[in-house]
Amino acid sequence: MQAQIIDGKILSAQVKAEAAAETAALKEKGVTPCLAVILVGEDPASQVYVRGKAKDCHDCGIDSRVIRLPEETTQAELLKLVGELAADKAVNGILVQLPLPAQIDEKAVIDAIPPEKDVDGFSPVNVGRMQIGEPCFLPCTPAGCIRMIESTGTPIEGKRAVVIGRSNIVGKPAALLLLAKNATVTICHSRTANLKELCSSADILVAAVGKAGFVTGDMIKPGAVVIDVGINRGEDGKLHGDVDFAAACEKASYITPVPGGVGLMTRAMLMKNTVQAAARQNGL
Ligand code: NAD
Q1: Pocket flag, ligand 1, residue 262 (CB < 6 Å)
Q2: 167 lines ligand 1 (CB under 6 A)
Q3: Is the whole-model pTM more than 0.85?
Q4: Residues 254, 190 share a domain
């Protein structure tokens, strides 16, 4: 079997086109969605991500405000800024680029973002709403994974899904969203005993480990849909996923590439959340 590629470029362009159309409709009603992105410090990867988010906003007709703060910013200064953006009616979404410098408590900052402007879907209120299936902002990476699986036409309902990784931003919410789509879900993590056996039983395998090539061909059930969330920079300077792509292509029915896969969808889903925030805040 040679897997078909789930093309993040094509799919993310579709999602962004949807966000652009929704933005245009909001603008006709006098509302221009606006995303505020706060970047503290000089982390090179974060700078790339923030530039990407501003470009995506521009592409979709969404206003963006990028606020760059020095590395030595205090928690009080950052909380004050988040508070100002929270009160600013022109700002619909607030995103604080992670990681933050060591002197700042990430949790306190995320908690300070009002749930209705938490377009990353990281605040406890949004996480709780997702858990009980209430309207909320879905975290962008897991929501992008679901969209990629659905794009294959493979029904999720009744399937056995295995998620490797249990982080709050990827693994746990990915598992919850698969459960909400009626998959039978197993979460594997660093202490899982029979990882290979569990993975090779998965109709849908989501890898969010952070280790290049961690998922080998023998861990993949023939015909599985494989979603590779990992972004690992190799010694060759290139980006690698968590999955041994060449080996997985021999087994899977569909697979996402790295780069050109989940990362692009994460960006696109943020645009959808920002438009949704603007609509909700204006009762539209
Ligand atoms: P994390 O380090 O918070 O979590 C990694 C998870 O992997 C942990 O829950 C851990 O239990 C599990 N794990 C580690 N070693 C393991 C092992 N030997 N066996 C089984 N499980 C093991 O990372 P994260 O934030 O969830 O990110 C995971 C990967 O996804 C990283 O490569 C990250 O760069 C990438 N990522 C990509 C996107 C995107 O948009 N594509 C977004 C977020 C994260």
Answers
A1: yes
A2: yes
A3: yes
A4: yes
Instruction: Find the domain containing 248 and state its range.
Output: 140-263
Instruction: Show the tokens assigned to 179.
Output: 């459960």
Q: Catalytic: 120?
A: yes
Going from the first residue of the chain to its last (284 residues), give the mean pLDDT of each consecutive group of 10, the final group possibly shorter: 95 98 98 98 94 98 98 98 98 97 97 98 96 96 98 97 98 98 98 98 98 98 98 93 98 98 98 98 96
* Protein residue closest via CA to atom 31 of ligand 1: 210
CB of 131 shorter than 6 A to ligand 1: no
Q: Are strands 239-240 and 232-233 parallel, antiparallel or unpaired?
A: antiparallel
Q: Let me know whether 166 and 255 are in one domain.
A: yes
Atom of ligand 1 nearest to the CA of 210: 32
Q: Which residue's alpha carbon is at the smallest distance from atom 19 of ligand 1?
A: 190
CA atoms of 88 and 114, how far apart (whole Å): 12
Alpha-carbon distance of 163 to 147, in angstroms, equals 16
